[in-house]
């Protein structure tokens, strides 16, 4: 924060107070994986690395270098906080160390940051997945069969697998229950989204959060109740989409952080805005539709 010289102490105090009001924080989130089969991209053979060390390095607008270390959790996700900084466009996230001896070769050493959201003077950035690899593909990896015909046949351009974007009403449908990943329908909101979610909504499950109606205990204002119920429902749906769809626009950590900030410091207007943003992301406007297959009966 810059402090300008001023002969009047009152003006100096007012300037410092105003600067404190507009000070924002930044949060950077990403994921670290082991590319077991040296595919060089996300695949079913990649596994998250717990305990990997990452460094987010950048320079602020004054040219001062900043570096914030982070460590990945059991889902491979990491978070780095930059208090008082909200412009990290020229920063990078770098791999530093892997706890896996069999997967400790740096594949993509660093990735630039991408701004996802700016809410309540906070900025949320994400980075593309960071990868360590083994020296050679592991034994579990599929082996390519040798070609019998030596003639090289030109291949048609590979088509990308379409991304799936599913609304809350899709995820609450029991015929799609087998597609819930890392989250179970009966998992508590407290475990999924933290203690603030429990204090706001009570001891309800992820499935109950999706089907939350317009009545919230202790809330007399109907619009207020609908707003916060909508926020919870769309947040849980966004989490399920982010786990199911690797190209979903938001990571699980980013979704949780945005939700927690709105519950902690936001107004009903903020909650309504974020619920609408999550709803658009879940619906995949201009990107795709819901591609969940009906689960097979047991």
Pick out its properties:
single chain, 298 residues, alpha+beta, Immunoglobulin-like, 2 domains, 10-stranded mixed beta sheet, 10 strands, 30% helix, disordered N terminus
Structural notes for this entry:
With 298 residues, the protein is an alpha+beta fold. It has 2 domains: 24-133, Immunoglobulins (Immunoglobulin-like); 168-283, no CATH class. The chain has 8 helices and 10 strands. The protein has helices spanning 9-22, 168-171, 189-193, 195-201, 206-210, 222-244, 252-265, 268-283; strands at residues 25-35, 46-48, 53-59, 65-71, 77-82, 92-97, 105-106, 110-119, 122-127, 130-133. Strands 1, 2, 3, 4, 5, 6, 7, 8, 9 and 10 form a 10-stranded mixed beta sheet that branches. Strand 8 (110-119) and strand 9 (122-127) form a beta hairpin. Helix 6 (222-244) packs parallel to helix 8.
